[in-house]
Write a structure and sequence with these properties.
Length: 365
């Protein structure tokens, strides 16, 4: 049974007692526990960040970029290990998880160029005896609150830039798949990042609320559902923080009559079922312009029938399980809603055979 802790001051720290279970999404079995922070633990990780920030802020841009380069190399060397953790806790297949890590690494690589990106500007004589200049300075301690569907990529959208710019960063990942956060924290330490500059606080609403209200947290970045994004924005701005709050989204596809329907069907199925559909790139609505609608449906049905569904860490799987049984039941209920509203059900994924002999509906994951 894995024991997922916080990461405070450069090392793992257990919580004060509250924990939550971590599930294997393929079987529904408990695979570990994650500590849920109290206000005291959030205060501790922020205090460590506050203490570490001044020296990191004053470090030269070359020093910061050197740490970023080392972190990038370590992340690349451990990408398979990180992808396995994602598959085990989120459920997405290994190739999807590797793609997630690769997309995150693109931001790390971008942050390695921070000496050029932080250049200011100077304009002489913009008016009589008036010059104008601009400089870029770090804020201090900033926080990221990230979702379950991309436990590595979404945090890597945030912390490489924040840290490279001279801030200290506190990550609050999803409690559903928290292990990736600790691996990334360990690799930051191995890369030479000073203790406290990157911290991880595991938790639920208690941790989120304390980060949103904490007087030493200067800015918050969030990715998640639209209602929670609104809550994060309203709460954090009321406490004087800069906020980036990204809510839910799904893509739509418009298919014109001259489209290559084989290509369209492949794209729609790959988008809709990749990462088990738990991503903004999952195309949830396909609108076909007559007369290609029926032909496209037939091709999508054929393409779906070729999918191999099974555990995310099984090399034969093309689609893994949804992250929890509760989430699976919620998604499955949409089929009944669609039929009640007049839709024709042409593929029932609840009856799909799963590697191991069960069906998607019977599988406990």
């Amino acid at each position: 049974m894995k024991n997922v802790t916080h990461w405070i001051g450069g090392g793992p720290v257990e919580g004060s007692g509250r924990t939550s279970e971590i599930f294997d999404p393929a079987t529904g079995e408990v695979s570990g526990r994650v500590h849920l922070a109290s206000v005291a633990e959030v205060d501790a990780v922020v205090a460590a960040a506050v203490a570490a920030w001044p020296a990191w802020r004053d470090a030269s841009l070359v020093k910061r970029s050197q740490v970023l380069f080392r972190f990038r190399e370590l992340m690349y060397a451990h990408r398979d290990e990180l992808a396995r953790l994602i598959s085990q806790e989120h459920g997405k297949v290994h190739s999807d998880a590797l793609g997630e890590v690769a997309r995150g690494l693109e931001v790390v690589e971008f942050a390695c160029g921070i000496p050029h990106l932080l250049k200011g500007g100077f304009s002489e004589g913009v008016s009589t005896r008036v010059d104008s200049y601009s400089i870029r300075q770090p804020l201090g301690v900033v926080a990221g609150i990230t979702p379950f569907n991309f436990p590595a990529m979404v945090p890597m959208w945030m912390f490489p830039i924040a840290i490279a710019c001279g801030n200290a960063f506190v990550l609050k990942p999803s409690e559903k798949d928290p292990s990736a956060s600790l691996l990334m924290a360990r690799l930051w330490t191995e890369a030479g990042l000073p203790d406290g500059v990157f911290g991880v606080v595991q938790g639920d609403k208690v941790a989120v609320d304390r980060l949103l209200e904490h007087p030493d947290v200067r800015a918050v970045s969030f990715v998640g559902s639209t209602p929670i994004a609104r809550y994060v924005y309203e709460t954090a701005t009321a406490h004087g923080k800069r906020v980036q709050a990204l809510g839910g989204a799904k893509n739509h596809m418009l298919v014109l009559p001259d489209a290559d329907l084989d290509l369209v069907a492949d794209a729609a199925v790959s988008a809709g079922f990749g990462s088990a559909g738990e991503r903004c790139m999952a195309i949830s609505v396909v609108l076909a312009v007559n007369p290609v609608g029926d032909d496209l449906v037939d091709k999508i049905v054929s393409r779906v029938s070729e999918l191999t569904v099974g555990p995310g860490d099984d090399p034969a799987s093309q689609m893994g399980p949804l992250v929890t049984g509760v989430h699976r039941d919620k998604v499955a209920s949409y089929l009944d809603v669609g039929v009640l509203e007049g839709a024709k059900l042409v593929v029932d994924g609840r009856l799909t055979p799963v590697l191991g002999g069960a069906t998607a509906q019977e599988s406990p994951g």
